[in-house]
């Protein structure tokens, strides 16, 4: 009986410590997000609206996988595309295809291809297909419109481009109360939940959340088959 009691105590302590840690992480997450400091983040002088800890994870993924192609939806000012291209320069391989519905003043780089149009439009998808060799390895990052319906549509389309052993990264899963912007409404997190109920080719890789603060909780989807 004493041994059972000791086990129960250890389980209780583990759960309590986990809850405390999650509370601390979520409080800091909300503090950081609400400060808007991430809106004043740049890469080589170009606006890049990302959490720097996520960008560090991206460079680790690129270094490990050395993808031939990185597809990004949601170009904005081009800072994240430039960051990805810079890391590809360092590892010596890779090109970036980035898509947005509007044309901004964007940085020029030999590895970046800019496409203007909706990420879910058939013409856009056809252009992407024509730019990728079937033998090339592909990594995808989704960061365009954030409502559930749009993200789920992107997931169904772009999951087909992702190579086995590579990632489909869904950004801003932290909104709609996960743990920020609780009144946003169904968004990327809810889209992932719906997608994974229908698709068993991907698993959530929680190891990519090792820095605790990520704007993409549950959003690093690893393709297993």
Folded structure, characterized:
By secondary structure, this protein is α/β, with parallel strands linked by helices. Helices cover 41% and strands 16% of the residues. The protein has 6 helices and 9 strands, in the order H-E-E-H-E-H-E-E-H-E-H-E-H-E-E. The strands form 2 sheets. A 7-stranded mixed β-sheet has the order 5-4-3-6-7-9-8, with helices on both faces. It has a two-stranded antiparallel sheet with strand order 1-2. Strand 3 (69-73), helix 3 and strand 4 form a beta-alpha-beta unit. Helix 2 packs parallel to helix 3. It is globular. The chain starts with a helix and ends with a strand.
Summarize the structure.
41% of the residues lie in helices and 16% in strands.
| Structural class determined from secondary elements | alpha/beta
User: How many alpha or pi helices?
Assistant: 6
Average pLDDT confidence is 94
Assign a percent range to the helix content. 40-55%
- Percentage beta strand: 15-25%
Uncertain residue ranges = none
SSE arrangement, N to C = HEEHEHEEHEHEHEE
List the defining traits of the structure above.
16% strand; two-stranded antiparallel sheet; single chain; 7-stranded mixed β-sheet; alpha/beta; 225 residues; 41% helix
SSE diagram, text form:
Elements: H1 2-35, E1 42-43, E2 46-47, H2 52-65, E3 69-73, H3 79-91, E4 95-100, E5 112-116, H4 122-131, E6 138-142, H5 148-158, E7 167-170, H6 188-198, E8 202-204, E9 220-223
Parallel strand pairs: 3-4, 3-6, 4-5, 6-7
Antiparallel strand pairs: 1-2, 7-9, 8-9
Helix pairs in contact: 2-3, 5-6
């Amino acid at each position: 009986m004493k041994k059972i009691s000791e086990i129960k105590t250890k389980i209780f302590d583990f759960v309590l410590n986990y809850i405390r840690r999650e509370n601390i992480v979520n409080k800091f997450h909300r503090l950081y997000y609400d400060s808007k400091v991430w809106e004043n983040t740049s890469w080589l002088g170009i606006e890049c609206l990302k959490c720097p800890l996520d960008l560090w994870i991206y460079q680790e993924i690129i270094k490990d996988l050395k993808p031939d192609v990185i597809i990004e939806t949601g170009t904005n000012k081009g800072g994240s595309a430039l960051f990805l291209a810079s890391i590809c320069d360092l590892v010596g391989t890779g090109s970036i295809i980035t898509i947005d519905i509007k044309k901004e003043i964007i940085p020029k780089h030999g590895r970046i291809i800019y496409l203007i149009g909706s990420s879910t439009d058939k013409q856009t998808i056809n252009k992407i297909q024509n730019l990728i060799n079937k033998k090339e390895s592909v990594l995808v990052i989704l960061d365009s419109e954030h409502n559930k319906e749009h993200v789920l549509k992107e997931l169904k389309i772009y999951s087909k481009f992702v190579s086995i052993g590579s990632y489909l990264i869904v950004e801003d899963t932290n909104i709609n109360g996960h743990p920020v912007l609780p009144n946003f409404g169904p968004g990327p997190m809810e889209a992932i939940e719906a997608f994974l109920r229908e698709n068993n080719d991907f698993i959530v890789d929680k190891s990519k959340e090792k820095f605790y603060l990520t704007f993409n909780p549950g959003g690093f989807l690893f393709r297993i088959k």
